[in-house]
Specification:
The chain is an alpha+beta fold. 44% of the residues lie in helices and 18% in strands. It contains 8 helices and 8 strands. It has helices at residues 30-58, 72-79, 83-91, 109-114, 138-145, 149-158, 174-181, 183-187; strands at residues 7-10, 17-20, 69-71, 97-101, 104-108, 135-137, 163-166, 169-173. The strands form 3 sheets. The chain has a 3-stranded antiparallel beta sheet. Strands 6-8-7 form a 3-stranded antiparallel beta sheet. Strands 1-2 form a two-stranded antiparallel ribbon. Strand 7 and strand 8 form a beta hairpin.
C-alpha cells in the first residue's frame, strides 16, 4: 500500500534532507542504511572489547605476577614454565626461595628478574710473552724432545700452554715444556 504524500526527513547517517514516502523512513538511500548497520555492528563489538579491557584493568593482579613476592605457580606463569621447572631452579640454586610452611614457597620477584641479567664481563690481563731467549720455537722443541709437530701441538693445547708468534716462528716457554717432559726435575 503506497501513500500519495511525501515527508521531508533528515537522514540519520549522512544528515542530508530527503523526501520520504513513509513516516518511519530513517535513511535517504540503501547505501546510508548499510553504512549505519555496519557502524552499529562495529560499535557493538568495540563496546564488548571495552568491557573486557575495563574488567582486566579493574581487576587487581588476576594472575598474581605483579607482586613483590610470588608463589611457585605465579612464578611459573610469569616465566611460562612449569612448576617443576621452578622447583628445579630453586634446587640447583639459580633461584632463591623461602619456605614459609610445608605448602607455601615464595620467590622474590627481583630474583626472577636477575635470572635474565648477563654476568659481568671479566677483563683479562694482557699476557706478555717471555723473552725469546727463554723460549723454544717449534722445530727446536721437536728436536729436543723427539716428538712430531702434531704431538707437540696437542700437548700445548691439552696443557693450555701459552704460545705466541714472532715473525715466521711460533714460540713456547722453555720452562713450560721442560716441566711437562721432565717433571722429576721440577719436583726434585
Amino acid at each position: 500500500m503506497s501513500s500519495n504524500f511525501t515527508v521531508n526527513r533528515i537522514c540519520e547517517q549522512c544528515g542530508n534532507v530527503f523526501q520520504a514516502k513513509t513516516t518511519v523512513t530513517r535513511f535517504c538511500s540503501g547505501l546510508c542504511n548499510k553504512r549505519n548497520y555496519k557502524a552499529k555492528v562495529r560499535n557493538g563489538k568495540m563496546a564488548t572489547m571495552d568491557e573486557v579491557v575495563k574488567k582486566v584493568m579493574d581487576a587487581k593482579d588476576p594472575d598474581g605476577t605483579s607482586g613483590e613476592f610470588l608463589n611457585v605457580k605465579s612464578a611459573a606463569k610469569l616465566l611460562r614454565a612449569s612448576d617443576k621447572m621452578i622447583y628445579h631452579l630453586i634446587n640447583i640454586g639459580k633461584l632463591n626461595a623461602v619456605n614459609l610452611s610445608k605448602r607455601k614457597t615464595l620467590v622474590y620477584r627481583n630474583d626472577i628478574d636477575k635470572l635474565f641479567e648477563l654476568p659481568p664481563v671479566v677483563q683479562l690481563k694482557e699476557l706478555k710473552p717471555p723473552p725469546i731467549s727463554e723460549c723454544y720455537h717449534m722445530a727446536e722443541a721437536q728436536k729436543k724432545f723427539n716428538i712430531s709437530e702434531g704431538a707437540l701441538y696437542r700437548i700445548i693445547q691439552r696443557n693450555n700452554l701459552f704460545k705466541f708468534q714472532d715473525g715466521w716462528y711460533t714460540y713456547v716457554a722453555k720452562a713450560d715444556l721442560d716441566r711437562i717432559f721432565n717433571p722429576q726435575v721440577q719436583n726434585g
